[in-house]
Amino acid sequence: MNSNCIFCSIIKGESPADFIYRDEDFVVFHNIRPSAPVHVLMVPVEHIESLNELKEHNVEVISRMILKSKEIAEELGIKDSGYKLVINVGSGAGQVIFHLHIHLIGGWSKS
Length: 111
Prior knowledge:
By secondary structure, this protein is α+β, with helices and mostly antiparallel strands. It has one domain (6-106): HIT-like (HIT family, subunit A), CATH 3.30.428.10. 21% of the residues lie in helices and 23% in strands. The protein contains two helices and five strands, in the order αβββαββ. It has helices spanning 6-11, 59-75, and strands at residues 19-22, 26-30, 38-44, 83-86, 102-106. β1 (19-22) and β2 (26-30) form a beta hairpin.
């Protein structure tokens, strides 16, 4: 854990979050600044700054997060209408919080 990281603070229960899933390896909670009707964040418990910092021992948790995303999408009612997973890597790609996280985004209606 990183004492200056908001996601680490959320995981430790020091900052509030609206959790929808939690286990020993990762958490899922609603984004406080959503960019879509449905916007949740999937965050590993281990503090990993970005995809660039992944190690071989992280393979299982990242794989589980990806697999869990379809269950979360179903729970949130967007599995069939469509959703996307986004990982920003570095500030040049829009990463603002330097703790690896996956955005699960969807819920737009067709026009």
